[in-house]
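Quick one, probably user error.
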């Protein structure tokens, strides 16, 4: 089964993925700061 996406759809998916990764990074940073004694 071959799913072909238009360029626009592919760009939207890439954008969403990047956004998720940024959110995860932010979350990890907050978690580290919260567990940091300082």
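Nope, works fine. Designed sequence:
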């Amino acid at each position: 089964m071959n799913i072909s996406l238009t360029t626009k759809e592919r760009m939207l998916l890439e954008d969403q993925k990047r956004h998720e990764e940024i959110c995860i990074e932010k979350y990890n940073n907050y978690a580290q700061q919260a567990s940091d004694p300082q």
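Helices lie at 7-35.
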